[in-house]
Amino acid sequence: MPGGQRTVIRRHRSEAGHSDEEITSPRSGLLTERVAESTTDSLTLEQERGPFASYRRVLRRDGDHWEERTDYRLEIPWFGWLFAIPVRRWIGRRSPERRLWWAPPEALDQRQILVLGLLAAASMTSAFVNTIFTQTVAFAADDFGVGNTGIGVAGSIVRAGILITIPLAVAADRIGRRRVITTVAWAAPLITALGAIAPSFEWLVASQAVGRPLGLALDFLIAVVAVEEMPRGSRAYAVALLAMASGLGAGIAVGALPLTDLGDGGWRLVYVVTLIWLVVAVDIARRLPETRRFSRDHTVAPPLDRGRFIALGVIAIGINLFVAPASFFQNRYLDEIRDLSGSTIALFTLTTSTPAALGLVVGGQLADRRGRRGLIALTLPVATAGIWTSFSVGGSAMWVSAFAGGFLGGIAYPALAVYRAELFPTGNRGRAAGLLTVLALLGGIGGLLAAGTLLDSGWSYARVMGVLTAGQLVVVHVVWRYLPETARRDLDELNPVDALSPPASTQ
Known about the structure:
By secondary structure, this protein is an alpha+beta fold. It folds into three domains: 6-75; 108-296, MFS general substrate transporter like domains (Growth Hormone, Chain: A); 303-496, MFS general substrate transporter like domains (Growth Hormone, Chain: A, Up-down Bundle), CATH 1.20.1250. The protein is built from 21 helices and five strands. A hairpin with a 3-residue loop joins strand 2 (32-38) and strand 3. Helix 3 packs parallel to helix 8, helix 3 packs antiparallel against helix 10 (278-287) and helix 12 runs antiparallel to helix 19. The longest helix has 35 residues, at 110-144. It is globular and about 85 Å long. The protein starts with 5 loop residues before the first strand and ends in an 8-residue tail after the last helix. The mean pLDDT is 89.
């Protein structure tokens, strides 16, 4: 919510089904109240723990009524407008303790709200940088006279640039998350924007082979900070919100594509748009604190838990072995097999992708409240079946199955994503996240190569995607068999190496 004091005034009739005790009891949920002052006819409550920069609720008796006045200020970087109305409505409720679908399962404090808002803005930067080359490469190739083979090679080279993220991951464990994130938040848009002045296709590919991996590094370091800073009961919720912000950033990249219609070199203007994310870099440099977990004494570069890393590596590969080709070949399938027009394909994508965002909200809540393992085991196979079915049937069944697959996949995502940072100690959390990102990319490349080869050999889309679903089944087995349940558990409990250091105040 934008800065500035807000006031909500209500009048409660004591005999209208609400006792004095119900009206005057300290609230819990979005925040925890404490009694600051109490007399016979008045009560003042203030925030004990919660997200508000300032908060004061005053109740005064007026005959058979209680007059309630709440003054508060909630400062959420970048996304305050999104929560302004829900927060105001919550404050005005007679029974505010009712569970809120949009609020974190465990209340955040003011610092955590600041960090989460900044990370969400950085997620938009990361997603934009990671999306722009894929969206513009065809236009640039036409401008430079490059064919399909050149486009394929360019895509491989840009993906291979992921190797430069490993030193950044190690540096984040050595010198701190804030310094590396700030550096990457500046470098990623600046280097990516060089595509606007590329004198040749080779120079464009070279710039994006650096810029895109920087965006990926920013992405996994954001997840590390989120896990380290959020309370134990809201880590998956935070990951879900960051994923939604990431989707918005990718959407902005897609929304900039009409600039390509301005002429042969119109694609260059899309790269110029990248410079808007320097505003986010300025804000991060000014306000993002170092995580409290990294700032405290901790073991530097402890041995990597091989069992956990192998399990998560198999999960990263297995997931992307199916997801990457399913998303990459979707439009081609709709065009070649189902003979849909461009506008209908766009409508299909919008209709089936939007539920994924709703699934993220549901999944973040469930993963924190009910647990990760059971949620993944229940939703991931059904989501996979839905996506596979959308490659097997036509008509309304195709739309419904894709819708269901996207929604359930969104539910599974927060539980899967939060594991990457939860299962490693502070001293190697960044390194593990970076290496797992590399493995995820390799899984995607393997899936794309396998799918392309099989399709060219005459296999149907349904048969190809059916084979690749095996990776998803392996993921469910590994999660259920080899990963611990991490919901509502302290990071120190999950990583005994960190427990040897002074306890973190927010975990």
